[in-house]
């Protein structure tokens, strides 16, 4: 896919085996400039090095998406430096497998702050810039958990936050369609990354994969392929949409 002359901001893209890093890699391989924003400074440096080694063009931004002040400051600096940002991928996310009876207010807020409020802050502060350019592609990471209820990885707070991301994305799509800005979500099912890797025994993984019609967990490439398409110029008439990426485990 061609991203020549375009700049993308991908949040939560530092994690080595994560979805965001693969999205950043694909956009840079398509000729785009990628800004990788994450709270984890050490992994950020490694992510930029990896992409640069593949002859891509990547920059890092240490950013906690839950802080409105830091988001505003960081975006002002980035827009000043790169002069335009065409693509935003709201990928930063966390989960906790806590049952509804055991979720504390603190944990509820944490899950909502990273997954939903962070998506809101970054989107809200980038939209005036995209409106000015009369162009933008926003892709938000939701989850199958937001559609069919939680499961082993996410509690009810995670399901609720991801369902909220989808609703937010649709509302932004309606408000921004006349400014050349699209807003879409992807809803991955079980994807092999650090977020899931640490929580599964081999036996549990086999059992889960057996329940998926495609008989395997998804890969970061499976998700990044769909995100990259929604980030292209060619996807201009698709907005307010959600693409399921789950090997058939949830079909609606
Ligand atoms: N892996 C799956 O099975 C799966 C399924 C459905 C949806 N998702 C969603 O996809 C996205 C990526 O997940 P992943 O599996 O690659 O996770 P991951 O844990 O590998 O990566 C998440 C990244 O977000 C960063 N992050 C966390 N809090 C942050 C904050 N406050 N500000 C900025 N960055 C922050 C982390 O440092 C990390 O690099 C998440 O939104 C997740 O909810 C994942």
TrEMBL record:
Keywords: Oxidoreductase. One of its GO terms (molecular function) is oxidoreductase activity. Its EC number is 1.1.1.-. It comes from the Bacteria. Belongs to the short-chain dehydrogenases/reductases (SDR) family. This is SDR family NAD(P)-dependent oxidoreductase. It comes from Salibacterium lacus. The lineage of its organism: Bacteria, Bacillati, Bacillota, Bacilli, Bacillales.
């Amino acid at each position: 896919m061609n991203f020549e002359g375009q700049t993308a901001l991908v949040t939560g893209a530092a994690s080595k085996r994560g979805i965001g890093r693969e999205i950043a890699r694909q956009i840079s391989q398509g000729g785009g400039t990628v800004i990788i924003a994450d709270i984890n400074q050490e992994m950020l440096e490694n992510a930029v090095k990896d992409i640069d080694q593949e002859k891509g063009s990547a920059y890092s931004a240490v950013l906690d998406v839950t802080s409105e002040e830091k988001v505003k400051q960081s975006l002002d600096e980035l827009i000043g430096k790169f002069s335009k940002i065409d693509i935003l991928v709201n990928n930063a996310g966390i989960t906790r497998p806590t049952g509804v009876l055991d979720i504390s207010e603190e944990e509820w807020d944490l899950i909502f702050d990273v997954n939903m409020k962070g998506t809101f802050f970054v989107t809200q502060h980038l939209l005036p810039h995209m409106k000015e350019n009369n162009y933008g592609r926003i892709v938000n990471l939701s989850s199958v958990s937001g559609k069919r209820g939680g499961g082993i990885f996410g509690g009810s707070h995670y399901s609720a936050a991801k369902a909220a991301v989808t609703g937010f994305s649709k509302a932004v799509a309606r408000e921004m369609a006349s400014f050349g800005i699209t807003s879409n979500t992807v809803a991955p099912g079980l994807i092999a990354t650090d977020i899931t890797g640490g929580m599964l025994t081999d036996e549990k993984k086999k059992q889960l994969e057996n329940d998926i019609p495609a008989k395997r967990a998804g890969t970061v490439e499976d998700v990044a392929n769909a995100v990259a398409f929604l980030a292209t110029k060619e996807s201009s008439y698709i907005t307010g949409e959600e693409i399921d990426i789950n090997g058939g485990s949830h079909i609606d």
